């Protein structure tokens, strides 16, 4: 026992500031990784892996040779299997890292333009909700939606409530897909979105709601859904769907999300260079 405590004391004495930094970085990576897979099917897999890792040394110490052989071989081939099965979760994690590491280019920077665009969207949604016109609108943020817009019809039109309402008029060519808004422009309409693979969502939700959740799981886009059955307005953000928005509540939450994301954006290299040049000029 004394030898054990002596070893711990020696280890603590030899810890440097870089060792502490290393531990903190690794801890942060594990924490963010867990938050990304929390409440997903990957969380259950992680629990299974931890159980296997615990059983391997136990089976070895108890000389359960057959169990030890099976578990060790399972771990050996399990890494490739995990990559194949959980490719969507891995992609989502890498996209999340990319969003947080580099600046977005699709969030409106001007307050007046942002307020106008949000007002037009909210007006259209409110009118369609009253008329029970089904709608699916995705507001692009830092994750580019080029793959999504490419399967729809390109518009590149100024955002207006009248145009948005006209797009979703029943039996028109573009009403059954999603409309993508990039900056202050309607980029495309009639786009097909990926459906969520989450089996725990409400079974009463239709294809539009499942598509909204699916896109929000794979990007940081803000997706608005209007139910054609009830007129209920829903919002999908970061894989979560919230419902029953009225005009004022929807406008407030959209502005809050977009302004908050804009304030946290990371400056591009170009902006940093410009700022550095500006400082040099001031010093001169």
Offer a quick outline of the entry:
The protein has 284 residues and is α+β, with helices and mostly antiparallel strands. It is 58% helix and 13% strand.
3D architecture notes:
This protein folds into 2 domains: 2-101, no CATH class; 111-263, YojJ-like (1. 58% of the residues lie in helices and 13% in strands. The chain has 11 helices and 7 strands. It has helices at 2-13, 17-37, 41-61, 65-85, 87-101, 111-131, 146-149, 161-167, 207-218, 247-263, 269-283, and strands spanning 135-139, 153-158, 178-182, 185-191, 222-226, 233-237, 240-243. A 7-stranded mixed β-sheet has the order 2-4-3-1-5-6-7, with helices on both faces. A hairpin with a 6-residue loop joins β5 and β6 (233-237). The model has no long low-confidence stretch (mean pLDDT 79). Catalyzes the condensation of 2 ATP molecules into cyclic di-AMP (c-di-AMP), a second messenger used to regulate differing processes in different bacteria. Keywords: ATP-binding, Cell membrane, Membrane, Nucleotide-binding, Nucleotidyltransferase, Transferase, Transmembrane, Transmembrane helix.
